[in-house]
Amino acid sequence: MRVQDIAHISLFAALTAVLGLIPRIDVGIVPIPITAQSLGPMLAGCILGARRGGLSQTLFLFMVAAGLPLLAGGRGGLGVFTSPSAGFLLAFPLAAAAIGMATERLWSGLSFIKALIINLVGGVVIVHGCGIPVFAFISAVPLSSAALTMMIFLPGDCLKATLAALLAMFVKRGYPLIEQSANGHLRS
Amino acid sequence: MLALYIPRRSLVHSVPTTLKLTICLIGSAAITFLGSPGPLAIVLMGIVALYALSRLPLTAVAAALRPLFLVGGIIFLLQLALSGWPQATATALRITALVLLASLVTLTTPLSDMIEVLTKAVSPVAHLGLSPAKFGLAIALAIRFIPGLTNDWHEMQHARMARGASRASILVIGPLILKILCMTNALGDAIAARGFEGRK
Q: How far is CA B94 from CA A75, B23, B73, B191, in A?
């Protein structure tokens, strides 16, 4: 692990925290509580790649567990890992790693559409896929009701995936971190 | 950057962190499998008694329940509609008990202690290339940069608005990411200058 990697991991963990600390931004006229925090794993994945992205989100969860109020609304501590939304949180490192893996694989031919699909699958499908069953289990409601309740977050999450894809392309052109090394293997 | 820990001199505060975490884990597992409202209410009262024993202010209890306000209300109503009063009450009590118990550990354990114990707990994963020294450095860096990045965010929003935008926008995250990426070079050099390069 190079020292640059430590810097990347720490800063993107900090970024995910900042996304929870900023005041809620309203998207148009819809009064849905959309937090920007789930952008964190998406960005970490498609900018840093699988290993650093996953580790940055793991570091973030570690800091939350240790007692820092880094989640949207000033929440933190071990309590959030026993609350119904725990599954969504725990999916962050997984989402970042999945998005990172896919981005690395498709790096040379990466287009906005591909990046969007990667972020939708990794950021929305995986996060909801982990979050909804855990929610259903902790709140003892059937899976279908849980899924229905969580549908309200889908439009916001899709917007976030779009933003993440845009930024991924932006960074790829200007400051790419996922490079092709001399012997042709992708490294991150 | 303030942690959630509230310093007090109490019995609960003086329990070793590892013991607290173990009790919390075992207790949470037990609570998850309690079925009816009766025993759950007793357990909940016990946990609130622990809060009193640890001399934490009442606001601490309220703050610990913050993760639950909106979600808990929705779940309760859902349960009420689907399974009736006993199930709904039992679920509400169970979730409250779980969150309060876990939050008690957070409120009575200093940040540094938690980091130390959690680091030891995840040290088996060290083969992924993360030594304890580097891990400690990573945490310290992340904590150190959160206020700075938050500041940068607000500055960039103000800069946008000074140039004619009507309100804050999420798009500021673009420049913020670029700033972060430019930071990493200097940061990497600073870390290497302190002797971390090449260390295991």
A: 19, 17, 14, 46
* Amino acid type, B100: L
Q: Which residues of B touch A48 (CB under 8 A)?
A: none
Q: Which domains does chain A have, with CATH numbers?
A: 3-23+32-176 (1.10.1760.20)
Could you report the per-residue pLDDT of B87-121, keeping only the tens digit for each?
A: 888 888 898 899 999 999 999 999 989 988 888 88
- Please state the φ and ψ torsions of residue A186, each to the nearest 5 degrees: -70, 135
**Backbone region of residue A185 per phi and psi (left: phi > 0; alpha: psi in -120 to 50; beta: other values):** beta
**CA gyration radius for chain B?**
22
Give tens-digit pLDDT for A137-184: 888 888 988 898 888 888 889 999 999 999 999 998 888 888 654 334
Min Cα separation B79/chain A (Å): 7
Amino acid at A169: M
Measure the CA–CA gap between A83 and B100, rounded to whole angstroms: 10
Alpha-carbon distance of A52 to A54, in angstroms, equals: 6
Could you say which of B122, B130, B182 has the minimum Cβ distance to residue A1? B130
Q: How many CB atoms lie within 10 A of CB B62?
A: 10
DSSP alpha helix (H) spans, chain A:
3-21, 39-43, 50-66, 86-105, 112-119, 126-139, 143-150, 154-174
Q: Do B146 and A47 touch (CB under 8 A)?
A: no
CA distances from A90 to A54, A62, B92 (A): 11, 11, 22
Q: Up-side HSE of residue A2: CA atoms within 13 Å toward CB?
A: 10
At B87 the pLDDT is: 82
A85 touches chain B (CB under 8 A): yes
Q: What secondary structure does DSSP assign to B10-51, as a single string? A: STTTTS-HHHHHHHHHHHHHHHHT--SHHHHHHHHHHHHHHH
Q: Chain A within 8 Å of B129 (Cβ-Cβ)?
A: yes
Phi, psi of A164 (to 5 degrees): -65, -40
